[in-house]
């Protein structure tokens, strides 16, 4: 244990781990993914892992092997409803479609995006046949949770805040969040994990549970939460980081947060190298890196200064990603976040959680959501502070937005 502790205190240990992970990631990127499908396949079977109903179609993700998923679409005939559940085993009859690379320079590449979810082909469904197989426990729990949430008046916002599902929220409101530079607050992120972990730890402390057991129980809960959300990269990062921090704390390894961050990044890329195509992954890791790097600026500072500095760092760090995906910046978002960050993280998000246990709070949540929507839609119409940029490769944005005089 002593030798391990000495090894973990060396920064170069983590730099070597990161270097080896980058090399491994590059190698894996150059290996063509193997698929059990081809365009001649007409019948596929698997387990439904994602499911979304639109007015005229059903979109689903099917797990067809341990290393491959399939995105499928079924258009409803005469609005005929088909009831499907997460975790159900089904047989699909239809046709396999290839996913083409983007033909627009520096444009969105749908093929690369799908590789995040281990999807190599699309499927057009003509017929769905349910198979009589037992639904896995985690999906039974998720279905129960979704059914319960759907019974609430504000179910669409509760699902967005707690599960990262934005399908039920008005697209105009979603676009206004993006215009105002506050969409990161509503993406499934480490905030949910942090709040949940802190609440559980405090409850266990009140029950006088020993430290090590507190962390074991808390880690168990947040891992279940991660599985319920579908394990998006930002949640995965937060869960891994909390897990490593727990081990670090009760074993007294004294590993710095930056080294824990590097180790978390390495583990995440080993799990799935294609996460680097995920916008949530990029925002989550870049902003976390910036906040850890400049964490000494927050020491012994008041709440308003910490909030302002966090907003400023998050904005500057995320500029290259924002420009490369949305081609515009809203400099007023630094100011907007001074209101929306505490409003969402300390008021809206906790009330959404508590309302699941105390139904009357759903009415208060309605008022807060109305305030959020109205203010965001109004502010999004303000053109001051918005600058449109040309579409360039992300490397140019990184060079352009990294002057030495920023801090």
Strand arrangement across the biggest beta sheet:
1-2-3-5-4
Largest β-sheet summary? 5 strands, mixed, barrel
Shape: globular
Beta percentage is 5-15%
- Derived from helix and strand composition plus strand pairing, the structural class reads alpha+beta
Task: Report Rg.
Answer: 23 Å
Which regions contain 5 or more consecutive residues with pLDDT less than 50?
none
Average of per-residue pLDDT values: 84
Share in helix = 40-55%
Number of strands: 7
Put the structure in a nutshell.
The protein has 407 residues and is α+β, with helices and mostly antiparallel strands.
Description:
By secondary structure, the chain is of the alpha+beta class. The chain is 55% helix and 14% strand. The protein has helices spanning 2-8, 11-29, 110-116, 137-150, 155-163, 171-179, 190-206, 211-229, 233-250, 257-271, 279-293, 303-326, 333-355, 361-379, 394-400; strands at residues 43-53, 57-65, 68-75, 89-98, 119-130, 328-330, 386-388. A hairpin with a 3-residue loop joins strand 1 and strand 2 (57-65). Helix 6 crosses helix 14 (361-379) and helix 12 (303-326) packs antiparallel against helix 15 (394-400). The model has no long low-confidence stretch (mean pLDDT 84).
């Amino acid at each position: 244990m002593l030798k391990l502790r000495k090894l973990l205190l060396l920064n170069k240990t983590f730099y070597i781990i990161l270097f080896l992970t980058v090399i491994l990631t590059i190698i894996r990127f150059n290996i063509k993914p193997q698929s059990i499908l081809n365009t001649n396949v007409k019948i596929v079977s698997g387990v439904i892992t994602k499911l979304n109903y639109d007015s005229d179609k059903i979109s689903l993700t099917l797990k067809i092997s341990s290393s491959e998923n399939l995105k499928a679409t079924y258009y409803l005939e005469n609005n005929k409803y088909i009831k499907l559940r997460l975790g159900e085993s089904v047989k699909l009859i239809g046709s396999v479609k290839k996913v083409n690379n983007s033909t627009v320079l520096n444009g969105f590449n749908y093929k690369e995006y799908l590789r995040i979810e281990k999807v190599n082909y699309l499927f057009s469904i003509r017929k769905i046949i349910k198979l009589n197989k037992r639904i896995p426990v985690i999906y039974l729990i998720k279905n129960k949770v979704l059914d319960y949430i759907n019974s609430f008046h504000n179910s669409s916002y509760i699902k967005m805040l707690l599960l990262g599902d934005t399908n039920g929220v008005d697209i105009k409101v979603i676009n206004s969040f993006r215009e105002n530079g506050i969409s990161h607050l509503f993406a499934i992120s480490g905030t949910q994990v942090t709040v949940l972990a802190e609440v559980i730890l405090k409850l266990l402390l009140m029950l006088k549970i020993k430290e090590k057991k507190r962390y074991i129980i808390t880690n168990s809960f947040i891992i279940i939460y991660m599985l319920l959300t579908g394990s998006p990269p930002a949640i995965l990062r937060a869960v891994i980081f909390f897990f490593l921090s727990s081990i670090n704390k009760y074993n007294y390894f004294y590993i710095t947060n930056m080294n824990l961050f590097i180790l978390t990044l390495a583990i995440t890329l080993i799990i799935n190298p294609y996460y680097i195509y995920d916008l949530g992954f990029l925002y989550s890791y870049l902003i976390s890196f910036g906040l850890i790097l400049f964490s000494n600026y927050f020491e012994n500072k008041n709440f308003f200064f910490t909030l302002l500095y966090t907003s400023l760092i998050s904005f500057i760090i995320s500029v290259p990603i924002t420009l490369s995906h949305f081609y515009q910046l809203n400099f007023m978002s630094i100011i907007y976040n001074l209101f929306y960050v505490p409003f969402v993280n300390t008021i809206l998000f906790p009330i959404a959680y508590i309302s699941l246990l105390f139904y009357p709070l759903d009415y208060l949540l309605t008022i807060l959501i109305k305030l959020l929507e109205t203010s965001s839609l109004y502010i999004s119409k303000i053109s001051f502070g918005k600058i449109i940029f040309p579409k360039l490769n992300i490397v140019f944005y990184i060079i352009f937005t990294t002057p030495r005089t920023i801090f």
